[in-house]
Amino acid sequence: MAMPRRGGLPGWSFAASGAAGIAPMLLALVPIMFTYSGWNAGAYVAEEVRDPERNVPLALGLGTLAVIVIYLGLNALYLYALPVSELAAIEGARLIDTVAERLFGFVVGGLLAAFSIVSLAASISAMMIAGPRVYFAMARDGLFATAAGEIHPKFRAPAHAVIAQAIWSGVLVLSGTLSQLVNYTGFAVVLFSAVAVSAVFVLRRRQPHEVRPFRAWGYPWAPATFVIASAAMLGSILWNTPLKSSIWGVAIIAAGLPMYWWMRRGSRAP
After folding, report:
1. Which of 258, 238, 255 shows the shortest CA–CA distance to 246?
2. Residue 242: what pLDDT?
3. Residues 67, 70, 73, 76: what is their CA dihedral angle, to the nearest 10 degrees?
4. Average of pLDDT values for 221-235?
5. How confident is the model at residue 5 (pLDDT cuts 50, 70, 90)?
6. HEC states along the chain?
7. Which CB contacts under 8 angstroms, 24+ apart, belong to 245-254?
8. Predicted local distance difference test score (pLDDT) of residue 184
9. What count of Cα atoms within 13 Å lies in the side-chain half-sphere of residue 253?
10. How confident is the model at residue 198 (pLDDT cuts 50, 70, 90)?
11. pLDDT per residue as tens digits for the range 83-99
């Protein structure tokens, strides 16, 4: 569907000539999965949340809805500002400021470019809070360096885990372009999201009588559909872009397996 432009302003443009196969669609879903991530970080700090049985599911549900609204709203704005063919030609790092420049002029475009940089820094800041809690929990279970499980006597935070997260964030920021980082982290997001959802089936089978404060809506069909779709996306990445950023994601994850097995030998984890 397309609407003509009026008064020199952009108009709606939802379609462009050409056809897309299954493989490009699966590849396109990977950065979309990356875009939809972030709200789940509330689960990382569940131990520090008051009344977690009520507030963690509420936070995850509201976070999911907020991300959906923001994502769809921004995409509607992009389609209003530019035709699909022009959107496809824009580098990912310049999307917001290019759209703003088309709609509001060069000055606003420059301001939003600066805002994009600040928002990226804010996402790093958010993971500096949530990420170290994962290292902290793993260390307490004997699956990570013991120092990551230590609490600072003054600040009452896992200081060593925060330092480790800061170092790794810096390495990622300095190691490639935004597109390369999205490809690398997008692969990991899809992989570990599929593993996490698969764990629902495993836990329900191994611990059928465990108390569960809320139900998984649509079980087993909804989680099974998610796992199958994620497996299709991962297969498409490895088949179509084996020499790009995804292979680095596989290599880094695989490099952690020997360390995990070595630490697990003396862990308290079942």
Report:
1. 238
2. 58
3. -70
4. 91
5. very low
6. CECCCECCECCCECCCCCCCCHHHHHHHHHHHHHHCCCHHHHHHHHHHCCCHHHHHHHHHHHHHHHHHHHHHHHHHHHHHHCCHHHHHHCCHHHHHHHHHHHHHCHHHHHHHHHHHHHHHHHHHHHHHHHHHHHHHHHHHCCCCCHHHHCCCCCCCCCHHHHHHHHHHHHHHHHHCCHHHHHHHHHHHHHHHHHHHHHHHHHHHHHCCCCCCCCCCCCCCHHHHHHHHHHHHHHHHHHHHCCCCHHHHHHHHHHHHHHHHHHHHHCCCCC
7. 245/176, 245/180, 245/181, 245/183, 245/184, 245/187, 246/183, 246/184, 246/187, 248/184, 249/183, 249/184, 249/185, 249/187, 249/188, 249/191, 250/187, 253/188, 253/191
8. 74
9. 14
10. very high
11. 877 877 776 567 777 77
The CB density around residue 97, as the number of other CB atoms within 10 Å, is: 20
Amino acid at 268: R
Confidence label for 202 from pLDDT (cuts 50, 70 and 90):
very high
Tokens representing residue 111 in the block: 């301001």
Q: Between residues 8 and 139, which one has the greater pLDDT?
A: 139
Return mean pLDDT, the chain: 79
pLDDT of residue 227 exceeding 90, the answer is: yes
Buried b (16+ CB within 10 A) or exposed e, 11-36: eebeeeeeeeeeeeebbebbbebbbb
Which residue in this structure is represented by tokens 């497996």? 231
204 φ/ψ angles, rounded to the nearest 5 degrees = -70, -25
- Residue, of 8 and 215, whose pLDDT is higher: 215
